[in-house]
Design goal:
By secondary structure, this protein is of the alpha/beta class. It contains 22 helices and 21 strands. It folds into two domains: 244 residues, Vaccinia Virus protein VP39 (Rossmann fold, 3-Layer(aba) Sandwich), CATH 3.40.50.150; 152 residues, no CATH class. The strands form four sheets. It has a nine-stranded mixed sheet with strand order 3-2-1-4-5-7-6-8-9, with helices on both faces. It has a five-stranded mixed sheet with strand order 10-19-15-17-13. Strand 1, helix 3 and strand 2 form a beta-alpha-beta unit. Helix 2 packs across helix 3. The longest helix is centred in the last third of the chain and has 22 residues. The radius of gyration is 27 Å and the shape is globular.
Length: 533
């Protein structure tokens, strides 16, 4: 299918207004331009239409698309050099021969490591290694494209690219963020409220990067509704945007959506409070990976019908099963009465022949429906025994809409991998859970989590543990009262209560400072959520 082919090669083409905008910006100072992943020739067309007398070198892996580009050159009597083949192989030749460019334009493919052709991947990664960067199995192909293209620029060159918003926030791009801050003196990031590529639900940004030999680096950000607003964006408008110092670090760039004074304010608050990290109080682990949820996860009526009540473990499978911050017996009974999937098939770790007749019957049913053929199942010694199962003290949602929270587990349940399992490293478990809901922790959740095109905030366990968590004074919190407010969707009331006790009375922040923290949290949260709309 064409869609699958496009996905495999990362071939989602650039909207015309975007290629026109980036081409115009790069060509303001460039006479010798590289297009490393030319695709259907969108950037080449834009350059031709601008009518500038420039040398263009285009590279495209797909020979059919390459023929289209050659046709564009020929029909317009345009001096362009097109190369059919892999960019990384060609880039290696450029570097070996000292060939560099005034400008680079492109929309690199978005291809995961496992779909990245090994021959090309090896060349790309070796080039990155030569620049002091060490990609891993999480690295998407756009990363080496961006890095290597940056190295092919002359000392005063410009780069204009369409890049996933992952650049701001994923851990595998941490070295890339540091690299960009060292490589460029001026970076402008343009974001869009509406997705440019609706078919892939991938939020992308435009990165405009300039070199001129300066030691200090600055970053500017501009948010537009959609690509139509690019028509009114000029170089003068970009230059007038507030410039923020680009830190030479691997930190996430979500900070830069804030104004300079807001960034400095938050840095000052962290320095002033020296607040403990959450890792002192919580140990976060992923949920259970069954390998085949449609076999292992059962509803109450299925337990009854198959006589498996003694062969299961209580489990939470979805975030909407956890309404407050205390997962009570009443909550569990409501889920059961609603016939929600609340049990995991979990027989004793015995050989098949030693299990009871009902367990064997259900395993036979699973094999008849090929449940044992799933990758996670077939690599187990006994495919029907789920490993790494434990009952946590609390849960934390891996993906959240409005804000993250901890939920105390009062029902001996575990959770699937849609929900993180949490061990509380403090005797007052409910107090730690209640203290998590404060404006300081929530604002850093926005800065340290990851948000994609749908507006959902996602956390890895390590990101949860790195959040600041003020706990001094938490003994004064009332978890049951907070639970009631959360169930009534009264997060602002909870923050009023907790901020007063934790931030003002015990961290000695002023009411004005706390209000500013809350304002910044709402700004970041609303920006993220509104992108979904």
């Amino acid at each position: 299918m064409k869609v699958n082919y496009d996905k495999l090669r990362g071939g989602y083409y650039t909207p015309e207004l975007v290629s026109q905008f980036l081409s115009k910006w790069v060509l303001e100072v460039s006479n010798d331009v590289l297009e490393p992943s030319a695709g259907d020739g969108s950037f080449v067309k834009s350059i031709v239409e601008l009518g500038k007398n420039v040398n263009v070198t285009s590279i495209e892996l797909d020979p059919k698309e390459g023929n289209k580009i050659k046709k564009i050159y020929k029909q317009n009597n345009f001096t362009g050099t097109h190369i059919d083949g892999d960019f990384f192989t060609q880039a290696k030749k450029f570097i070996e021969n000292g060939i560099m460019f005034d400008g680079v334009l492109g929309n690199p493919p978005f291809i995961r490591y496992q779909n990245f052709v090994e021959e090309y991947r090896e060349t790309a990664f070796k080039l990155m290694n030569s620049f002091g960067l060490y990609p891993n199995r999480l690295t998407n192909i756009w990363v080496p494209f961006l890095v290597i293209c940056s190295k092919l620029l002359k000392k005063d060159g410009r780069l204009g690219m369409v890049i996933p918003a992952e650049l701001f926030q994923v851990n595998y791009a941490a070295d890339t963020r540091k690299f960009l801050s060292d490589e460029f003196c001026e970076i402008t990031i343009i974001t869009f409220q509406k997705l440019l590529f609706s078919k892939v639900q991938q939020e992308v940004v435009l990165i405009l990067a300039e070199k001129d030999g300066k030691k200090t680096s600055q970053i500017r950000t501009l948010e537009l509704t959609d690509e139509t607003e690019l028509e009114s964006v000029t170089s003068k408008k970009l230059a007038n945007l507030e410039a923020k110092d680009l830190l030479h670090s691997k930190d996430k760039w979500t900070y830069y959506f804030l104004e300079k004074n807001e960034i400095n304010f938050l840095h000052g608050i962290r320095e002033k409070t020296k607040c403990d990290l959450a890792s002192k109080y919580i140990d976060v682990d992923v949920g259970v990976v069954t390998g085949r949820n449609n076999f292992f996860i059962l509803k109450p009526n299925e337990i009854f019908d198959r006589k498996l009540s003694k062969s299961t473990l209580n489990i939470v499978t979805r975030s909407n099963h956890l309404k407050g911050i205390l997962f009570s017996k009443n909550d569990w009974e409501i889920n059961i009465n609603d016939n929600l999937p609340s049990y995991m098939f979990y027989p004793e770790d015995k050989e098949y022949e030693k299990l009871n007749v009902n367990e064997r019957s259900y395993i036979d049913y699973g094999e008849k429906n090929l449940a044992h053929k799933g990758y996670k199942c077939r690599i187990r010694k006994k495919w029907f025994i789920v490993p790494s199962v434990h009952v946590p003290d609390a849960f934390m949602l891996r993906q959240v809409h409005e804000y993250p929270k901890l939920i105390q587990n009062l029902n001996g349940a575990t959770s699937t991998d849609t929900i993180h399992r949490v061990k509380i490293l403090h005797p007052n478990k409910d107090k730690v859970i209640a203290a998590f809901l404060n404006s300081l922790t929530l604002v850093y959740a926005e800065l340290m989590g990851r948000s994609y095109g749908g507006g959902v905030l996602t956390f890895e366990p390590s990101e949860c543990e790195m959040l600041p968590l003020p706990t001094k004074g938490m003994d004064l919190l009332d978890p049951k009262r907070i639970d009631k407010h959360i169930r009534s969707k009264e997060i602002e009331m909870v923050l009023d209560i907790n901020d007063k006790i934790l931030l003002e009375d015990n961290l000695e922040l002023s009411n004005k400072e706390v209000k500013e923290i809350r304002k910044i949290w709402n700004k970041l949260k609303n920006r993220r959520i509104n992108r979904r709309k």
